[in-house]
Every structure is written in C-alpha cells, then in structure tokens.
Amino acid sequence: MISKKMENMVANSSAIRAMFEEGNRLAKIYGAENVYDFSLGNPNVPAPESVKQAIIDLLSEEDPVVLHGYTNSNAGYEDVRQAVAELLNERFGTAFAAKNITMTVGAAGGLNVILKALLNPGDEVIVFAPYFGEYRSYTNNYDGVLVEVSPNTETFQPKLDEFEEKITPKTRAVIVNTPNNPTGVVYSEETIQAMAAVLEKKQAEYGTDIYLISDEPYRELAYDGVEVPYLTKYYANTIVGYSYSKSLSLPGERIGYLVIPDEAADSENLIAAANVATRILGFVNAPTLQQKVVKACLNEKTDISFYNKNRETLYNGLKELGFECIKPEGAFYLFVKSPVADEKAFCAAAKKYNILIVPGTSFGCPGYVRIAYCVAYETIVNSLPKFKELAAEYQL
Ligand code: PLP
Fold it and tell me: Ligand 1 pocket check: which of 245, 248, 370 to mutate, most ligand atoms within 8 Å of Cβ?
C-alpha cells in the first residue's frame, strides 16, 4: 500500500501522464510528423554548441575524481557560485557573494529546497492563478497549504487587492513566476512595486516574515526587448530560483540555483537550511559536471529568435482563426480562451485533429488551454490547417 498522500498525488497526475501516453499512441498510428503535440515545455532548440564543447573539455582536462565526485559543499562548488554571483551583480547591480548562491537540481529542486527550509505544517503559500501546477505538489511535500489568488483574465497580471485579502499570519511565502508559465505574461515593474508594498504592509501588520519566491526558469525568454524586473531590488525578503532548463535547453541535466540575499530575513540560517535541505532531500548536491558546464557557459544564450518565430506564427495564425488570446511577452506558451466553458471538452475535440493541448484547470484557471510552442516550426505551420478545422467545429 502506498501512502495516503501519494495516493492523491498519483491520482492527480494521471491527466498529464495520460496526455503523454496519448501523444505516443497517436504518433505510432499517424506518424510523429502528423501529431501536433503542444503539451510539454520541453525546448526544441538544441543546447548551444559551447555546452557540448565545455563537456568535452571538462571530460578531457579535469580530474575525473573531482568531476564525478560529490561537491565539497552541498551548496555546490565555491568557484561556480562565485561566478554566478558576479554575473548577477554585473547584470542587475546586486551585491551577491558565493555564499548567497546554492546550486540546485533545476528550478524544481530549488523550489523544494527553499520550501523545505521555510515551511512548518499548515503554513500558507500564495500563488497567482494561472500558475505552474507543480507548486501545489511542492507545497504539499512539506505539509504547507496552497492559497490561490484568482486570475485576472483581462491582463493576467496578479490581482493585488485579492492578494492583500488572502495574506494571513500563516502566510510564509508567495511564489511568482515571470515570464509566466502558462500565460507568457511578464509582470511589470509597477506590479512588482505594488506587490512589494502589499507585502511590506502585511509583514508590519502581522509582525511576520513573508518570503517572495521568484521562480524564473524563463527569465532569458523575453521578446521585443521587454524588461523582466529583478525582484531582490524591490523587496528584501526575496529568494530567486533560476534554472538552465530553458535558458540553455538543458532540462534533462537538472541544473539551476537559488539566490538567498543577505537582506532576506534570517538569511544566514536560511542559507544553512538550504544547504542541509539539498542533502536530506536526497539531491546531496546539484550535478557536479553540470555545475562546471554552467561556469564555462555563463554568458551563453539560447536562440530566442527560434521561439519568437513560433510565437508570431502561432499567435497570428490563431487570432486570424478567431481564437482569443493575449500576446505573450515571454516564455514559450500561449494561453488561449476555450470557445466553450468546459475547456477539457475543447481539449478532447482538439485531439480529434491530433492536436494535444493542456486544460487550464491544471494551472488553476479553467476555461483556458495552454499551447506550448517550444516545438519545431513545421509543427506550428502544419498544425494551423488543423486548428482551422477545429475553429470551424466551434463556428469561430
Ligand atoms: N517552474 C516553472 C514555472 C516551470 O515551467 C518549470 C518547468 O517547466 C519548472 C519550474 C521546473 O523547471 P526545472 O526543469 O528547472 O526543474
């Protein structure tokens, strides 16, 4: 018998698993090129050539005992953390040192580490719908309670009035994700300033520390020169979780980092707790080889023009067909209004045309669907006639 907690988690994850299996099943019947699988955020852009070269160089030049060994600190190699800190200071005018950086097993590992470090059972974690559905599981891992702020479907910027109402003495953390999965929205500087003001006010009112966790795997994926504010500059109790999964197309390598600034309340203990959490959650340390790759490729960038071309083509194509959607400013997702209230029925209808998309309910926002456009350009182009048939079915 598995645990009660896992019973629920297994039951709830069946929709995503079913979609994954459905994609494989359809590909076997119709051929992969005739299946338009927009269900996963798995980048289709290869990692930069320099990543491959860095791996080759490291394998041939580094001492294998070090390269494949445990790191001497659970937080990661000092030189790697120092290099990450310096890059952030250069880019964002911050003043981080190596000690403020904890290398993590992707953003997912980082979120689990920081929530493990912060949450007592019953502590509340606020998220803004629509949000990455795994936040619910990660919070549940540490017996926290997820509190949702309902979506503003006009702009998909967070609803700050409702946010303020939902902060209680038990609020321990707030997770924001900008550029956002699933909407592609970037929270504006005004939004961040207003959010910080609400947090300051509520901290003072309750005499608590409320941590703002900025989950930023899509930071580098912002289009048309849009600025993504660096949140530590607006609110002292900010923790940043970064990942190379999308920025360097390395999702399978499981590498990222947390930033715990000195300004954050109880930062020394929090840094120590993140170190221990990395160990006791069973990560032990972020992958050693990938830490060194990150240092060697610090200034590398993914080919954002690839995603931008997909974004323009799919967004314009779907708008022309009569679908409603705001234009994403970042990440690689479109969040499209379902033509019927029951978006799961719409996803089922799309499947008849071999189009696989994810219901908004998975992101706490029913009535919408997520289309991940991190796929081959041909998939976008070839899917449009199928979307046209789908639109016709709904008389758009
Ligand atoms: N956070 C968000 C918003 C994501 O979309 C994802 C992955 O898609 C993650 C975290 C996890 O990313 P990682 O591969 O870095 O663990």
Answer: 245
